[in-house]
Amino acid sequence: MPEGPEIRRAADRLAEAVVGERLVSAWFAFPGLQRFEKRLAGCVVESIAPHGKALLTRFDNGWTLYSHNQLYGVWRITDAGQRSDTGRSLRVALETERKAILLYSASDVAMWRTDELHAHPFLSRLGPDVLDSTLDEAAVAARLLDPRFAGRSLGGLLLDQRFLAGMGNYLRSEVLFAARLLPQRRPRDLQASELAALARELLSVPRHSYATRGIEHAGGMRADYLTDTPDAFRFLVFDREGEPCPACGTRIQRQQNGSRRLYLCPSCQR
DNA sequence: CTTTAAACCTGCTGGC
DNA sequence: TGCCAGCAGGTTTAAA
How does residue A143 score in pLDDT terms, banded at 50, 70 and 90? Predict the structure, then answer.
């Protein structure tokens, strides 16, 4: 149930648990993947890394596990041999000597030859990961002005994974609010200062979310309110219809944009 | 080409 | 308590 920041934090935890370790066993619920169970036993997990919201788990036998959690998939980490009964359906289990990583509920799971991953129909079309530390404001500004994107409305563009992978629905509202822009604006019509602000917020909002635990939740949709540190990530407009804008006090509006909800301050955003 | 709508995957919540 | 409708932070497909 995640956007880029939540996926990346999950990847960090998984990597810490099993990267560099040798698999004792592998298990798949998908009949089409069960032929890999024997081939993965004894393999070393080389890396676990996200690209946008997709997760790539690479093994030292030339194969990579592709998984996408969509709205509902969730990874858990347990001590080897354990299976916490969650009520959810277990889809993948990778077990090392010490730890096991378990994927529940996800349906978009596949094994790919590592050297053929570039041909994956979803991965191959993704834009740069918005949380890639080498991505800078100049690159994002240039991408906004790319002819493929410059004429699009920001509302649609910010959810398009071909533009920036890892963006998602709460980030869209928060980025547009931080940049003080309305979703119907288009990159090519922005003033230079607006374009710069948008590029800056496209990087800083997701990074802030990632750095401060984002909206990782303990069972509730509004768990962003539970974060404790002073600089904790909070929704300023998302999910706050009718509440006063933190900048000007105007009531925050909820709109439909595409088929997704979008929140904005009609006074701050232009 | 862009935008919109519906479908799909699965889980959770709220209402009756 | 139990069932069902509706909704969700995602993506694909088809239609407009």
Answer: very high
**Distance between CA A209 and CA A98 in Å, rounded?**
30
Is A188 noted as a catalytic residue in this protein?
no
For the stretch A40-63, pLDDT in tens is 999 999 999 999 999 999 999 999
Number of C-alpha atoms within 13 angstroms, CB side, residue A66?
Answer: 18
On strand B, nucleotides with any atom < 7 Å from a protein CB are: 1-7, 9-13
CA–chain centroid gap for A253, Å, is: 25
DSSP H helices, chain A, are 4-18, 36-40, 137-144, 154-157, 169-179, 192-211
Active site residue A2: yes
Strand partners, A257: A260
Nucleotide B4's nearest residue (CA vs C1') is A258
* pLDDT (mean) for A72-76: 95
Catalytic residue among A53, A91, A185, A213: A53
A97 in active site: no
CA of A236 to C1' of B7 (A): 32
CA separation, residue A237 to residues A178, A201, A226, A241, A242 (Å): 10, 15, 16, 7, 10
- Identity at A107, one-letter amino acid code: S
Which pLDDT does position A33 carry in this prediction? 97
> In this complex, which residue's CA is closest to the C1' atom of nucleotide B9?
A107
Q: Is A193 helix (H, G, I), strand (E, B) or coil?
A: helix
Tell me how many helices (H) and strands (E) chain A has: 6, 10
Rounded-to-integer distance, Cα A179 and Cα A163, Å: 17
